[in-house]
Predict the structure.
Amino acid sequence: MEYSGNQVKDINIAYIGGGSKGWAWALMGDLAMESDLSGTVKLYDLNYEAAHVNSMIGNSLNRRDDVKGKWQYQSVETLEKALTGADFVIISILPGTFKEMTSDVNLPQEYGIYQSVGDTTGPGGIVRALRTIPMYVEMAEAIKAYCPDAWVINYTNPMTLCTRTLTEIFPEIKVMGCCHEIFGAQKLLASMLKDLKGIEDVGYRDITVNVLGINHFTWIDEASYQGTDLMPIYREFVDRYYESGYEEKPGQWMNSFFSSACRVQFDLFRRYGLLAASGDRHLAEFMPRAWYLKDPETVKSWKFSLTPIDFRMKRQEELAHKSKRLAAGQESVQLKPSGEEGICMMKALLGLGDFVTNVNVPNQGQIKGLPLGSVVETNALLVRDGVKPVLAGQLPLDIENLVARHVLNQETVLKAALRKDKSLAFRAFLNDPLVSIDIGAAEQLFERMLQNTKAYLPGWDV
Amino acid sequence: MEYSGNQVKDINIAYIGGGSKGWAWALMGDLAMESDLSGTVKLYDLNYEAAHVNSMIGNSLNRRDDVKGKWQYQSVETLEKALTGADFVIISILPGTFKEMTSDVNLPQEYGIYQSVGDTTGPGGIVRALRTIPMYVEMAEAIKAYCPDAWVINYTNPMTLCTRTLTEIFPEIKVMGCCHEIFGAQKLLASMLKDLKGIEDVGYRDITVNVLGINHFTWIDEASYQGTDLMPIYREFVDRYYESGYEEKPGQWMNSFFSSACRVQFDLFRRYGLLAASGDRHLAEFMPRAWYLKDPETVKSWKFSLTPIDFRMKRQEELAHKSKRLAAGQESVQLKPSGEEGICMMKALLGLGDFVTNVNVPNQGQIKGLPLGSVVETNALLVRDGVKPVLAGQLPLDIENLVARHVLNQETVLKAALRKDKSLAFRAFLNDPLVSIDIGAAEQLFERMLQNTKAYLPGWDV
Amino acid sequence: MEYSGNQVKDINIAYIGGGSKGWAWALMGDLAMESDLSGTVKLYDLNYEAAHVNSMIGNSLNRRDDVKGKWQYQSVETLEKALTGADFVIISILPGTFKEMTSDVNLPQEYGIYQSVGDTTGPGGIVRALRTIPMYVEMAEAIKAYCPDAWVINYTNPMTLCTRTLTEIFPEIKVMGCCHEIFGAQKLLASMLKDLKGIEDVGYRDITVNVLGINHFTWIDEASYQGTDLMPIYREFVDRYYESGYEEKPGQWMNSFFSSACRVQFDLFRRYGLLAASGDRHLAEFMPRAWYLKDPETVKSWKFSLTPIDFRMKRQEELAHKSKRLAAGQESVQLKPSGEEGICMMKALLGLGDFVTNVNVPNQGQIKGLPLGSVVETNALLVRDGVKPVLAGQLPLDIENLVARHVLNQETVLKAALRKDKSLAFRAFLNDPLVSIDIGAAEQLFERMLQNTKAYLPGWDV
Amino acid sequence: MEYSGNQVKDINIAYIGGGSKGWAWALMGDLAMESDLSGTVKLYDLNYEAAHVNSMIGNSLNRRDDVKGKWQYQSVETLEKALTGADFVIISILPGTFKEMTSDVNLPQEYGIYQSVGDTTGPGGIVRALRTIPMYVEMAEAIKAYCPDAWVINYTNPMTLCTRTLTEIFPEIKVMGCCHEIFGAQKLLASMLKDLKGIEDVGYRDITVNVLGINHFTWIDEASYQGTDLMPIYREFVDRYYESGYEEKPGQWMNSFFSSACRVQFDLFRRYGLLAASGDRHLAEFMPRAWYLKDPETVKSWKFSLTPIDFRMKRQEELAHKSKRLAAGQESVQLKPSGEEGICMMKALLGLGDFVTNVNVPNQGQIKGLPLGSVVETNALLVRDGVKPVLAGQLPLDIENLVARHVLNQETVLKAALRKDKSLAFRAFLNDPLVSIDIGAAEQLFERMLQNTKAYLPGWDV
């Protein structure tokens, strides 16, 4: 890397999952809009062809006048090539294919277990983790071997266990898991200020929050805008919109599988007194099955959706078409902020401005009451070459209990995956709040799900 | 107190719940058989008359030739009188009456929640705790005022929360909760040695175990007899008796509401790999409802019983008759060891011999992974005026998760009881593994249960 | 308080020690230059007259055109009046008088113990603490009674023990201790950049540091400016200036009792590898007596000074004259930044902009390896109504040992002061690295020092 | 191993340092007097010849009628041979020779540093540790390779660092460090009971104590005999004998380099209020130089001695003669208890009876306030295949500070030895309370001491 004033050149980024559609383009767009950084992005993907197409798309940007940040994109055939010399490693992969994801999400439905996402917790999240952990073991070892000083930013779900696997295998790794769900909560609070107080143009960055918990099950216990404590206003907001739910564009949840009307969040606030800072689709999956995901009617009554894998597949197909058009120059990458903060984070780590945001890193005491070493989500201060968690305090006992159950379950899943211990994995599976079915049925479901993902479980006796 | 060699005279014991039938007589018997101790027992009970009758029964022992330990029994009208000057305080009360216990156990059945005991966890255990905590707050304050240096031994259930309330209100209190369930596991291991290895006459004290967990949900991860590791033998034992269950007298579980065939214990061993050191009736209540307590048929298939309150009431009536006969001299207290270790413990605390046994005291690090300050059960070294927990290590992650959920729930119940916070209490109630029913139904059940126990909830808004 | 946009009116500040010369005027100046805040400052001082004069000086500012922030100054007779209604409490007092300080600093010299400051550690710091703690007990109780929600900013030395006393007596207090010594280290690093790299105009705020330790004995293990790691450059800097020392204006240390040539800091870096982030006069006092303070010649050779109390008294006299002139309008308060960050901190706490700086607060895990609850110095994130320490990591073992010794000694001093336990206080005294003299001599010295400060030790048996 | 009732045959013991004179014979004697155990002892020593002579001495015991425990002794040439198949490993070596010990003890005297023992702390203890740690690294690796399940009992000094090195290199090792110093304190208390209360025949095992600290700097905060609290009696005892000192045989300290009159212990009790449970010769070395070891006169005034290495050498010579006579059958091993508890410990670990005694093992929470993982000394419960520390509580702050300083210094020495980091080692050296001399002199002393021990510092740059 080479610094000149506030600009840094010759940055090397390794992008694992660099053949992705959507995520890769978002990064390209963000990099293109940032004038202070430039360098090379090495795209690595199990699907080399996809990475190669993306390299063409990425390089085509350099010819555009509206592009401020110039980057070279290279597709590479091996992890080693991607990682060697890397200053940053971005990991954003799909663990397995939609075939496995279909099993993760649909099979449990046969047993009465409905999942709105299926990638973080619940039977789907757990089996996805079992499949993903060996991949992350490999990455951790490769990073240790080829770029031990690089900063690693993980975007893949299950966020906690992906990040946690890296720190387990290579404890000195410089890593953080990044997720935009908290920004959603901040944006909601900004909307609330407009809706209830008539305050316009509040950006989500203007909302200061204290967050604590684990990814997709993070809680806000303090929120403010300038001198105003937002918690009492949020209470008012919940009271007003508890029944109807709240959306910027009312009814949107019915048209988008990714939207919700925040009714789950509102209900959790009424019950527990803190703001659960994630989308309803994620939150619902962490609670007992009977609460929000009992059956499709219940889900509908809470005004959110079960995201069908069909839909994801169809979207993927559209993206494949778009990819071809982009590569062929028939369409061009749109330059609009992705809503991720990856670039800001890289800038802070490069020394171009300290920055506070939420990250997923091992608990070194930033959350009291949760096990040290487990990956948790809180604010952190990002400085040159450093991510320093901000002390977030402790969750109220009753919420801590809900969260701790998942934390210990996740640690159990990690241990089971590393030991290839099916029995231990099943005990974790059985202890998930969504798996409150008969043990016999649970055993059958687990067995079938493992069978469907067995290609990704090397060394397992399944 | 006055020492002379290994004998101690003029010991003062305050017995709270001193009108009890059964427990009080057991203590009288144990004291009568111990030649090294003598003094005065002050019997205090909300039912003064019962305490008075017991004092007559107790004093009648002194006239018997086979009684080695001579004690004066006095019934007293107030806690102050009982506690003033006490060296030891024994607490063994029934919190409320069988009327409330009927509600604790039977009402949940209307909602499909079956409880085999209903005094420790589950809806019954939680509501019983809410009712009991205010009584223990009063006792803690009285002990602080009248005998802050006395050693307090608690026998009342819910053991953990009774003991925990005392330490919350008067942190310097010298207290331990004592329970014989672990001895049951040690006796089972002795039986096993006879059954599988033909080794006779092994006493339960000859079996060394490492215990860790919370009362009635304690786990043994190491067990030995002389040079023999008992864990592999226990595995063999479980394999042999998994289906049939094991009892000293086969079929006894059908004739006694307090017996079981250890099938739940065996099943937990198969699943988790450690020996759950409590009776099946208790163990079942800590696990998800669908496992062992789904319905009466399931219970029967696991070869244990739901203890009916009717039966407890009937037994109480019989004891009332026996009480009259004892007081009238028509019958006399039988001198046989009660199976409790209270006297041994007192002797150790008096300096008459160091002693290792299991106790319930606040976690000062004896169990890694569970919150400091919560009451846990492990071995401790008892010395003159001291109870020093032995480091028990850490539970495997998957079991720790099961136990931690109850620990945090119990701490939540304590907080709710002290704050008289119904909403918080309900959150704990809802998070109990047995309460996996619809929220609406749970709310109704909780409300009804509180109504039935409301006389014991001073200051609550119910 | 009343918010309007980014401006806050009607703020109430209680200033304890409000009759001070110098500190009070600095605050007045800083407030006057800040256009976003206004309100009332209540000046409380044991010397009411001094507070009253200061109120006149403060109010005179409002008539000036160059004053942007308008504040009313009131002198009040009681703590209660000062604190009632306060949003902020600023504490900046002289504990005792220069008479006691003379004893603190000069008496030990008779025993061969030289102190460059004598207000933080060493015999002087310890006796000063014993004298100050009862005053802070009183303040803590008053704050609890009259303004429990106010934010308290302490500037008085001994910083650690003043702050720590407040948290001991009123654990829920919102307090931080603030000290500018770290800024000095940041300024030195800025100078270094100019000196070695020719980079001009770097402000101390542009230097990002990670700090950990205790007040006046804080260590920097990471420092950067934009993308540059400053630690290797600092090593170069130390190598160049190790012998000569470094000063912006060479030789200044000979003309100012408050200056030094950083030779102690450089020597500590050579030995321990981290940057000790305080002035040499403070650092020297934390190390063994023979290192930097053996005798006046040794002190001179390290290019710093023993600050004579005579000098402080003389300066105080000059300030008294200046006070008169200011009150009489013959001179006016100069509007230049004081170098303290108090106003920035208040703004952050009011919600006018999050802010990271170093503070002294109880250790909640921000420094691993030092006792929880003891007051430590690290960075913190200041937000609306919150001070959230940033995790600073752990000191290397050998430095941790140096710091821990002082931390435990300080905790011992606190305990001794609260219990009025002379023997315990002496044990702490004896364990200070500067007190490596014969025990008999130490006893005599301690006794004489206590006698001299006895008026401030109510209830002690001295 | 083969069990038959309470007897165990075919036990394999590896004795490292098996050529030792004195220690090896003591073990032989203890084993010979124990009828329940038998098997083989493999003697390994850098001096093979010495081990071989000892094997002859050991085997000669089997022909005697008064020997109850029959053991085969074999001298072996390699660690591998000694350890393979071992059930127990006993380590009792002299690290280096008396030549190095002469340097450890005598060289510091040239700089005014007097050491009464020189094997645990102080300049001698630190340099001895640097020399010993590489040997223990080798042993740890060999134990891991050849007998990972064996129980290791260390007797070598510096006890803490020898044991700690083993746990650092092979964390799963089953090890405890054993030392008889605490028994000395218990014996003193028994003598006290006779002297002050006329109670005869109290054995040291009848005195129950709570111990906490580090080896040779352990503190007793509770002591009792039957129902009696011994602490108030000890206070009386100290008052009576403070000036004169106390010895069973008055004046013995003048005739034996290993005796003392407990005046240091008494003085520490007067100052700190707890009983320092080690001989004065050890205790003095942990305190500041000026207290008890200022010069030979001071030492004499405290009624203990500086043990000259000449004396040790002479004794060694005598033992060499005795060795020859024993091997030649001209003299025979005396069967009297050695005063060590090694055999009792082995029996407990074999399952022949649970047992509570003091051990040196890593801190897992048994002492609050000292770092986890550092080796500390407290009571432990020894069971079949297990050593379970008993929670000992926390030292008072002022004593904790004294102890923590040594703990952190020892950890620093370990780190320095493993990294071969001379500068770090020197920082630890300099921070020892005995090394309160000029830095320049300290540097020279350290350099000279290292030179003298350099043959044992492979890979160091010295």
